[in-house]
Amino acid sequence: MEKLIIQGGNPLVGEIRVSGAKNAALPILAAGLLADEPLTIRNLPHLQDITTTMELLGSMGLTLTVGKRLQVEIDSGTISNFFAPYELVKTMRASILVLGPLLARFGQAEVSLPGGCAIGSRPVDIHLHGLAAMGAEIEVSGGYIKAKTTGLKGADIILDKVTVTGTENLLMAATLADGVTTIKNAAREPEVVDLICCLQKMGANISGAGTDTLRIEGVKSLMGVTYDILPDRIETGTYLVAAAMTGGHVRLKDTRPELLEGVMSKLTEAGATVTRGLDWVELQMKGQTLKAVDINTGPYPGFPTDMQAQFTALNAVAEGVGVVVESVFENRFMHVQELMRMGASIRLEGNTAIVTGVKNLTGAPLMATDLRASASLVLAGLVATGETVINRIYHIDRGYETIEEKLMNLGAKIKRVPR
Ligand code: EPZ
What we know:
It is built from 14 helices and 24 strands. It is of the alpha/beta class. A four-stranded mixed β-sheet has the order 22-23-1-24. Strands 2-15-17-16 form a four-stranded mixed β-sheet, covered by helices on one side. The chain has a four-stranded mixed β-sheet with strand order 4-5-3-14, with helices on one face. It binds ligand EPZ.
């Protein structure tokens, strides 16, 4: 299995381009199922999860034509089945996002239950309740969701919890339902807004983007269009934290700073100087000491749970004590024991990590467990004394396009070895 080997100690300096957002690309690829004509998507990141989604759509018989710079055209006209197998879904939970579109357009779907993952049980009950409210007949048996409908009907839905993919699944289903659907307590993440913008361009009638109440008036059909995925705010935040931790000076271009207000204000609180333009953001430490910050994760516009592991790593080498509360997932501290093996001083109390900064971490062999935890181990390796070897880096390849190339461009001593 591939590994990453990092020699810590180099400050990151330079400029890199931010890739398209994984968590916007996944639902928008699934939206290809809704359109009567081919949907062309551009600025796709080159990631395993994108490949997995394209494989899933291809296995259903859709025709995918890959263009330059990871542009893909999706033609659902050649669909031959409505089946999402366990073998694919187990590698990427977000496969559940084909359920709503399949029901809305074709009236049937058989999708493997995603199952849990390292960070939590990750149920999909809210997805299923919402689709049932729209008239779908749903049976869960043998590890599969079997759903059918003679035609979805608009419904008034209140989500028990703010769920990103739950909102996206129901939103996509509602675009072709008969009548008006309202979704209350909807997720407001920028990736949900990006999906809404794409659906509106395809002819969907949706209002309330970016608020917790969405109103969707069903239409007869959706057109194929060309759509550019928005930049990845979590990738942006991850490299900003890397620059802060290594005492460097990094500029990230082709991004959207306004999607990172919470992260940028925490970095400023930690002592960094953050400047920004319309599509770029720059961080430098100017010799300032990194200070620990308190974090409490929550749905957007709260502090993103996908940045929690990275800030836990930042606190591990900052001055003072940082209290990190993970309020979204029940088990998203898998990175803590690995950071402690590098010498971090962290005390876990339920969903809270009390992190006392240490002078330096020591490189060690580490095990990646989930996508963002793995990123935090890379960040720790960049500042640790000596060599850090990270195993199971397929977790990282799911969410960070060419991470070692981008870090090498910034002066990091990092390489990927086959085993
Ligand atoms: C999305 O996951 C993201 N994935 C996650 O990013 C992200 O961490 C998460 O939203 C929170 O922002 C994609 O967009 C592909 P949720 P999702 O449903 O939609 C509970 C990454 O690192 N819940 O918003 O699966 C759930 O257990 C990934 O890129 C139910 O109880 O997360 C959790 O506690 C990791 N029932 C909370 O809601 C449901 O039916 C929020 O989960 C659905 C969710």
